[in-house]
Specification:
Elements: H1 6-28, H2 31-49, H3 55-73, H4 87-90, H5 94-103, H6 108-117, H7 120-127, H8 130-141, H9 146-153, H10 157-179, H11 199-206, H12 209-213, H13 219-230, H14 233-250, H15 262-282
Length: 283
């Protein structure tokens, strides 16, 4: 955009369209809402674009505007949970741990394929309360850093980490409902030497798993988790499903194609941008 020639301006606006529409689809969940958000946000952005000197500043501002617009217009799901997600809600109970152990090692690839077939990943993200959904979309699906997400959402980086972990656990739990439908009979868990499953000991591990997978724990805590995992089949299976869930969140979505009228909108944006920059240049 700073180069100012027609081809560069059009290329920049196309990138902005892709960014806003993809984000809006993930947050709004409805194509019509995402299209309206994209149009309104980009038209609102035109007078501001020439004022930005850094890509990061533009990125943060653009996501803030899109986030606010999405949250105002998004239709609330009747399946949405309470506004706050507690770790206790999201951890597996003894019954799920037993089933995980009975299943042996979870195959992440098979888990991912079944998640995609049922569109459960998208549905699970839409069920998240807004403050968790925004963090998950920005961090895991849009690829922003913790610091950038904190700046966009207006919360501390530590809060971003907590919400991200809870959102990941919620999505994992939703996907597991498909993997192990309620009421489905499983073989009883096998234990060695009569040892009992240890959900109380596992609980401390579950709170740290996102930081562990994102390599944000110090070496001593990583070693402690790995020692526990080496001796705990249910936790190994749980970690595999969480890791597979995060991998799915990182993958590009297949249904983010821009609507057909984007060329018309981009032409309007280009004309508006030319008009704004001309005014600014003469003032």
């Amino acid at each position: 955009m700073q180069r100012g020639d027609d081809a560069s301006v059009e290329q920049a606006l196309a990138l902005l369209q892709n960014t806003v529409f993809s984000f809006s689809m993930r947050v709004c969940g409805q194509r019509e809402d995402a299209e309206d958000t994209m149009q309104e946000v980009l038209l609102k952005s035109v007078p501001q674009l020439s004022k930005f000197q850094s890509p990061k500043a533009l990125l943060v501002w653009l996501y803030k505007v899109a986030k606010n617009r999405c949250l105002m217009t998004r239709r609330k799901s009747k399946f949405a949970p309470a506004q706050e997600l507690s770790l206790d809600q999201l951890m597996p109970d003894r019954h799920e741990l037993e089933r995980l152990t009975a299943d042996g090692r979870i195959d992440p690839e098979a888990f991912a394929i079944r998640s995609e077939e049922a569109s459960r990943l998208r549905d699970a993200v839409q069920k998240l309360p807004p403050q968790y959904r925004i963090v998950l979309v920005l961090r895991d699906m849009e690829g922003l850093t913790d610091e950038e997400v904190a700046e966009i959402t207006g919360v501390r980086s530590g809060t971003v980490r907590v919400r991200l972990h809870h959102a990941r656990l919620f999505v994992r739990k939703e996907l597991m409902r498909m993997w192990m439908p309620r009421g489905e009979k499983r073989a009883p868990a096998k234990t060695q030497s009569g040892a009992q499953l240890r959900p109380a000991r596992c609980k401390a591990m579950f709170a740290e798993l996102s930081d562990y997978l994102d390599e944000q724990l110090d070496e001593s805590l990583c070693e402690e988790i790995e020692r526990h995992m080496s001796d705990c089949g249910p936790c190994q299976a749980f970690l595999a499903t969480l890791e597979a869930t995060i991998e799915q969140l990182h993958k590009p979505a297949a249904d983010r194609a821009l609507p057909e009228n984007t060329s018309k909108l981009r032409n309007q944006l280009t004309q508006d941008y030319r008009r704004v920059t001309k005014v600014l240049g003469s003032s």
